[in-house]
């Protein structure tokens, strides 16, 4: 087992990474907990619900299950209220613990519910997709989507631990693996050029879920994210660079309808677009743009974006948490391993859209 420590003003907690962590969930529940609510969806519940609940039952606490509809399209207020309905109906108090058993949608909604139920209860992240393991489960971002924008309503709220069971990746569809790898390569692109090169050299091993390669990728991704989150928990500066590709990616998700593309697929394609924009605005090397495009394709993500129409693209990107005073601020690269936040002229963005969409 590998352990990565996250230290933020909002809380310090461990990330445990290794096989069989689902069977050790009881070790993460505080002794004073009065009840445990496992929030999941039918797909994950069928695979891992009983196993997780059996481990949690060893605490001697009451364990209940809350199943939410599956998919990004259901990351909304209606699904969030299903959590509150169950917690209130079962009379769970402020010493209960919520357990997010699922991918990024479940993790985000469970964390948001924990942040506001009785003004804050504890929760545990148990991510079951690669994307959630390397990104959304770490750092305390919680949210639901709004029809006008993705993740626009939420809170920064840290879990008490993150339990990453690498065994669960074997049941993921290939698209989900590729989507998770988009977030993995992102860390190298903005923070660690040596890790980026390693990802280029090991892309096929990562897609095949080679145990050693995937364990290293998860650990290094978590280490890099923990470093950034520890310096900037509430995304007032440095942490925003973790959104590389997300301004374009969120526009793809919103424009096509949530769920048409997986989040990681949209981010992977968005990184290609961000690299193109970086070449025009910051002087990012054109050869490195080609490397970004090649690696995004190698991990199995789309490298060409849908043609939403330039005006629609810009409209969707305006509804972004990085927009300030009506000006869209993009995460751009100056070189592999270094990123900055800055506006870009609409003309430059339109030029990028013209050559990256079809």
From TrEMBL:
InterPro entries: Dehydroquinate_synthase, DHQ_synth_AroB, DHQ_synth_fam, DHQS/DOIS_N, DHQS_C. Pathway: Metabolic intermediate biosynthesis; chorismate biosynthesis; chorismate from D-erythrose 4-phosphate and phosphoenolpyruvate: step 2/7. It catalyses: 7-phospho-2-dehydro-3-deoxy-D-arabino-heptonate = 3-dehydroquinate + phosphate. It comes from the Bacteria. CDD domains: DHQS (cd08195). Residues 66-178 form the 3-dehydroquinate synthase N-terminal domain. Residues 180-323 form the 3-dehydroquinate synthase C-terminal domain. GO terms for cellular component: cytoplasm. Keywords: Amino-acid biosynthesis, Aromatic amino acid biosynthesis, Cobalt, Cytoplasm, Lyase, Metal-binding, NAD, Nucleotide-binding, Zinc. Catalyzes the conversion of 3-deoxy-D-arabino-heptulosonate 7-phosphate (DAHP) to dehydroquinate (DHQ). Belongs to the sugar phosphate cyclases superfamily. Dehydroquinate synthase family. This is 3-dehydroquinate synthase. It comes from Achromobacter veterisilvae. The lineage of its organism: Bacteria, Pseudomonadati, Pseudomonadota, Betaproteobacteria, Burkholderiales.
